[in-house]
UniProtKB/TrEMBL annotation:
It comes from Prosthecobacter fusiformis. Binds 1 zinc ion per subunit. This is STE24 endopeptidase. It is found in: Endoplasmic reticulum membrane. Its cofactor is Zn(2+). The keyword Mitochondrion does not apply. Zn(2+) binds at residues 276, 280, 354. InterPro entries: CAXX_Prtase_1, Peptidase_M48, Peptidase_M48_N.
């Protein structure tokens, strides 16, 4: 490791520079909590709710900041004390071959990061979320979810990592093969996740016949959006926060509504929220975002293939040779600044899509008011930041701030 090694400088910028950028953005965001509520949100956040959300956001950021500092500290100490070189040498000493050794290294690093983060996840769940009335997760469910996640990483994540390591270890065009593999895997998981993986954590039950179910199927028919199933998810077993999502393709589409959403919103609001989600499909947002994601993945894999050929890249982390598995772990540090930049484009596109889906929903239900009221209620119930700083929005928000969405909805023609 040396300051004369450009890869070492890039890694420093990636690890320490991005951390400070995130910290600066957080400070700016917190500073806006003291501002007066915009006129359009005066009726949404009462003074009591405003005081509660200020405390909630600050406490949440305190947990995440402490976790990030801890992870950064552990990483820097491990890195600068020669930990990566030691780990690679020890893994190679097991005599399992380059592919298995690479997967083993990836698994150990991911496991270490997961377990370092675990106490902070517990602090957030049983401390912050519980203090503000959101948490419904029991310790047994928390532990069960953790081990289920580890099992999924072992059953799905490790074979995927093994295939990618094998490509870069043996093929002439590894980035291309890895990109094609990831593209196919992503499409497969889009279909598989709601049917196999999500039921491991959530219980899906068919929605009972009634006004809401008829309204949902009526909306689907009106918009020519085939729906095969409407399910209610037991989200209240973990949190009081509401949610809804679509899954599947074509005639196998499935609508899932959290039971917490059903308890806190009117039928008209829920229908408008679902019309918004249908709008994403009708406006072709899903394939656009998938294409953008795959384009970024292609860029990352291409750059990674270049880095993995450089002994200097590995030397920046105290690693001898060019071991592929370790390289996959280390490249994430180098890529962070560029990942922030490419992420800005994806987030900007996502926020644009949200405005379009909002407008579609307003037209679909004949008025912007049901969605407007639903968004207000969601924001209030989730204690969302009423006016986040633009830097935080640019860097992290896939949805526009509430005040901007309300302004756009209210500016729609009255005939909508």
């Amino acid at each position: 490791m040396s300051l004369s090694n450009p890869w070492f400088i890039a890694a420093l910028v990636g690890v320490i520079g991005v951390f400070h950028l995130e910290f600066f953005a957080t400070l700016l965001n917190l500073s806006r909590l003291g501002r007066a509520i915009p006129d359009s949100l005066v009726g949404v956040f009462s003074e009591e709710t405003r005081e509660k959300l200020v405390d909630y956001i600050r406490d949440s950021k305190r947990v995440s900041f402490t976790r990030d500092v801890t992870l950064l500290g552990v990483l820097v100490v491990f890195w600068w004390s020669g930990g990566f070189g030691w780990l690679q040498a020890w893994a190679e000493g097991q005599g399992r071959g380059p592919v298995v050794t690479g997967v083993f290294v990836i698994a150990l690093v991911v496991l270490a990061q997961t377990w370092i983060s675990l106490p902070f996840d517990a602090w957030d769940t049983f401390g912050v979320e519980a203090r503000y009335g959101f948490n419904k997760t029991t310790p047994a469910t928390f532990i069960s979810d953790h081990f289920k996640s580890l099992a999924l990483m072992a059953v799905i994540g490790l074979p995927v990592a093994g295939v990618i390591v094998w490509f870069f270890q043996t093929q002439a065009w590894p980035a291309l093969y890895a990109w094609l593999f990831i593209a196919i895997f992503t499409l497969l998981m889009t279909w598989l996740a709601p049917r196999v993986i999500m039921p491991l954590f959530l219980k899906f039950q068919p929605m009972e016949a009634g006004e809401l179910r008829e309204a949902i199927f009526g909306l689907a028919r009106k918009l020519d959006f085939p729906v095969n199933e409407v399910s209610v998810v037991d989200g209240s077993r973990r949190s009081t926060k509401g949610n809804a999502f679509f899954a599947g393709f074509g005639k196998t589409r499935r609508i899932a509504l959290y039971d917490t959403l059903l308890k806190s919103h009117t039928t008209d609001e829920i229908v408008a929220i679902l019309a918004h989600e249908i709008g994403h499909n009708k406006c072709r947002h899903v394939p656009v975002m998938l294409a953008l994601s795959l384009a970024e993945m292609g860029l990352m894999l291409g750059l990674m293939g270049w880095a993995l050929k450089s002994p200097q890249f590995f030397a920046a982390f105290g690693v001898h040779g060019t071991p592929v598995g370790m390289g996959l772990v280390l490249f994430g540090m180098i890529y962070k600044p560029l990942g922030v930049l490419t992420g800005l484009l994806g987030l900007a596109m996502s926020r644009k899509h949200e405005f379009e889906a909002d407008a579609f929903a307003a037209r679909a239900v004949g008025s912007h008011r049901p969605l407007t009221e639903g968004l207000k209620r969601l924001s209030r119930d989730h204690l969302a930041h009423p006016q986040p700083h633009p830097l935080t929005v640019w860097m992290h928000y896939s949805h526009p701030p509430l005040v901007e969405r309300l302004r756009a909805l209210e500016s729609l023609p009255a005939s909508s």
